[in-house]
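ESCALATION

Customer reports they have been waiting on this structure for their group meeting. Please prioritize. Original submission:
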Amino acid sequence: MLWKRRNKIANETLAHEEHEVRDAYARGRRDERKARKRHPIMMTLTFAAALVGGVVLVLAAKEGSFARSGGIVDHGLALATDRAQPVVMDAARDFKAKTFRQTES
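Update from on-call: job pushed to the front of the queue and completed.
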């Protein structure tokens, strides 16, 4: 009978300690998540930079050198800038006109 009682106490103590360890682990995970909160804009910019880097690496492998792949990227950016600039200027002009009309009313 004494042995059964001792085993029962030992099992209850072990179960209690195991429960405490699980709670502490869960609290630690929550605290760590709060400490490492990620900003969505920064994560998007990081992902975009990684994507651009991957494209440059693929172009470098395809073209045989980083210099030629850089030239291709520069040419593509120049074309995009030339095509986008008039569109952006028109949108800015339209926005300014609409804003000016609304402030006059």
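Sent to customer with the following note: The chain has a mean pLDDT of 82.
Escalation resolved.
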